[in-house]
């Protein structure tokens, strides 16, 4: 009973606003590189063109 607050809670997932894949909250999308509708990681191929 003493350590009932130490149980692991399931991670909450949200969908990416740009590409729609499921990912944890407060994380940059590894698929498209956006966070909160801002481009954080620019596409290297698009920069080369």
TrEMBL record:
Q: Where are the transmembrane segments?
A: none
Write out the GO MF terms. structural constituent of ribosome
Matches recorded under InterPro entries = Ribosomal_bL32 (IPR002677), Ribosomal_bL32_bact (IPR044957), Ribosomal_zn-bd (IPR011332)
What's the domain of life for this entry?
Answer: Bacteria
| GO CC annotation terms, alphabetical | large ribosomal subunit
Listed Pfam families: Ribosomal_L32p
Assigned keywords, A-Z: Ribonucleoprotein, Ribosomal protein
GO biological process terms on file: translation
User: Which family, according to the similarity comment?
Assistant: Belongs to the bacterial ribosomal protein bL32 family.
Protein name, entry field: Large ribosomal subunit protein bL32
